């Protein structure tokens, strides 16, 4: 018998749009109806699929929630698309972060870097953890740990200048327009909004805003964007954002992926 409070069986099915397709299991309504989505439509969970330990997220889509079942996990479970699997889970600490061992050791060895790290938001720390953890080669992981520590140390002594912000905004703007060439830019709320429907007052799908120490790329329907790695920040009903305080921390693929997903939602 499972030690987790929520348990169900479901079939692994395809979900996605266009060329982007995921393997997922949908969580039954009798379970999601028991969960508290008042603070966030996406909830991080700890659990098991076919007895294999997982740390994942319940992701919303059209009034339902699903769990992603990546190919690597399917292989570990000995299952494939179309198979039924047993899922057990509990709601995790929404701010909890699994820090890769190499990065944890490096942080413990450097008090200055650790101080900056502890001051970051959960979403920002999770993004750097993902960057380290996604590397398959040991040498790559070690290099990314070193880069993270160097970045933390530079943050301790660096505050963004207006020129830094301008360059960062220019870079992010170019990525948004490269991802969605037909987008229209609208100056508003002290920043720049992007829309595919300029004739509609509130049809923007994302926006760029500069703050004292960082720049935010905000997504109007952020809670509906697929974010299995928990990179988006924010606790509002709909909006989510990515935070940047240097051009060096801009992941082009991640930015374009989120922008394209946001634009698709905005065009719906």
Automatic annotation (TrEMBL):
What is this protein's name?
A: YdhG-like domain-containing protein
Q: Which residues form a coiled coil?
A: none
Q: Which InterPro entries match?
A: AF2212/PG0164-like_sf, DUF1905, YdhG-like
Looking at the record, the residues that make up the YdhG-like domain are 168-262
Instruction: Name the species this protein comes from.
Output: Roseimaritima multifibrata
* Superkingdom assignment: Bacteria
Q: Name one Pfam family in it.
A: DUF1905
């Amino acid at each position: 018998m499972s030690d987790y409070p929520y348990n169900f069986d479901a079939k692994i099915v395809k979900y996605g749009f266009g060329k982007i397709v995921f393997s997922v299991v949908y969580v039954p309504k009798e379970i999601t109806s028991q969960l508290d989505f008042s603070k966030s439509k996406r909830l991080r969970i700890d659990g098991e699929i076919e007895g294999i330990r997982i740390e994942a997220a319940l992701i919303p889509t059209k009034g339902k929630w699903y769990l992603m079942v990546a190919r690597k996990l399917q292989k570990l479970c000995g299952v494939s698309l179309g198979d039924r699997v047993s899922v057990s889970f509990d709601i995790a600490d929404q701010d909890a972060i699994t820090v890769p061992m190499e990065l944890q050791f490096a942080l413990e060895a450097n008090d200055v870097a650790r101080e900056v790290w502890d001051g970051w938001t959960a979403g920002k720390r999770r993004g750097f953890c993902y960057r380290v953890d996604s590397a398959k080669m040991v040498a790559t992981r070690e290099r990314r740990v070193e880069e993270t520590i160097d970045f933390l140390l530079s943050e301790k002594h660096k505050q963004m200048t207006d020129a830094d912000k301008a360059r960062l905004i220019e870079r992010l703007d170019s990525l948004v327009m490269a991802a969605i060439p037909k987008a229209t830019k609208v100056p508003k709320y002290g920043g720049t909004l992007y829309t595919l429907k300029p004739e509609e007052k509130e049809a923007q799908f994302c926006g760029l805003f500069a703050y004292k120490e960082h720049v935010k790329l905000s997504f109007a329907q952020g809670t509906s964007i697929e974010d299995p790695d928990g990179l988006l920040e924010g606790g509002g009903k709909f909006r989510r954002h990515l935070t940047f305080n240097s051009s060096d921390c801009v992941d082009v693929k991640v930015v374009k992926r989120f922008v394209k997903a946001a634009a698709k939602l905005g065009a719906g």
